[in-house]
Structure formats: structure tokens, C-alpha cells
């Protein structure tokens, strides 16, 4: 019985296709966590033209998504990148 429950396909509620903006039109920002404020300040200028959307606390930056940005942030010293 349990196996039947797992294999049964259930329909999920979803938005109407007319309300969607298009494939991948909206991406979540990336949140980068650095060890401290000094590490964040030192790392971000070396990254080039990355758009910083905000700073919620010391050593934390919210950044606009870009191709390869997650890897670049880790290479610049970010402890954690969430997006």
C-alpha cells in the first residue's frame, strides 16, 4: 500500500500559465556570508561589476544573480552562499 502511495502521481496546484513572466525571468538574489565585515569589504571590490542589492548585517551581502557568481563568491572567501 505504501509503495502505491509513493508511485501514484498527484497533481500539484500551480499558477496559471498566463500569469507567468516567462522561463527563468525572475531569479532569486544570492546571499553571501563572510567571516566579518572586513572580509566582505575586501572581497567585493575584487569581484568586478557585481551589483550589491543590500547589506542586512555585518559580513552579509545580498547580490544580484549572475552566471558563475556563486563560484566567484566562494573563491573570494565567502563562507556560505545561499540563493
Order of helices and strands: HEHEEHE
Note the overall shape.
globular
What is the name of the CATH class of the domain at 26-83? Alpha Beta
Question: Which stretches are poorly predicted, pLDDT < 50 over at least 5 residues?
Answer: none
How many strand units?
Answer: 4
| Contiguous helical run count | 3
- Strand order, sheet with most strands: 2-3-1-4
Q: How much strand content do the residues show?
A: 15-25%
Helix share bin: 10-25%
The CATH topology of the domain at 26-83 is given as: Alpha-Beta Plaits
Structural class: alpha+beta
- Mind summarizing the main beta sheet? 4 strands, antiparallel
Question: What separation lies between the terminal Cα atoms?
Answer: 38 Å
The chain-level mean pLDDT equals 80
The CATH architecture of the domain at 26-83 can be given as 2-Layer Sandwich
Question: Could you characterize what this model shows?
Answer:
With 83 residues, the chain is α+β, with helices and mostly antiparallel strands. The protein has a domain at 26-83: Alpha-Beta Plaits (2-Layer Sandwich). It has three helices and four strands; from the N terminus they run H-E-H-E-E-H-E. It has a four-stranded antiparallel sheet, covered by helices on one side. Strand 2 (52-54) and strand 3 form a beta hairpin. The model has no long low-confidence stretch (mean pLDDT 80).
Brief sketch in words of this structure:
Helices cover 24% and strands 17% of the residues. It is an alpha+beta fold and 83 residues long.
